Amino acid sequence: MPEEKITFVNSEPAKCGCKMEFSSGGGHYSDVVYVTPCEAHSASKSFGPVEVKRDADGWWYHPNIPSFGEGENPAPYIAWVKEQGLELKGWHSGDELEDLPDEDAACTAWNPESPGPEWFLMGIFDTDDGPYVQWARRVTP
Question: In which domain of life is the source organism classified (predicted)?
């Protein structure tokens, strides 16, 4: 993915809403540029629910989860979840898919219910043990 550039012209806010202030340092220190990111570029924006559009086989993965590479090591994902202040809950389809026709065994007819109103979907994906659903909710301090 190409790196996005935020452009400021004549010290005006960028088209996205990011703001910039410049200080020459008044001869006491180096030039300083202060950037106030817009909501889209803010690292502190809260991760949360989005519209779910499952693919033709019934799979879906939250589009705002960062890529953690191709490895099988769950540690980076777990650290990111903790950093986001999320609690996870998930389960395999198990017996819920037993009565489905073979051609639908992927996941299209499985519609797992949310564990509660505060939970949002992280993904419905395939594993070695079959379809798996994962939900998240914000941890309250």
Answer: Bacteria
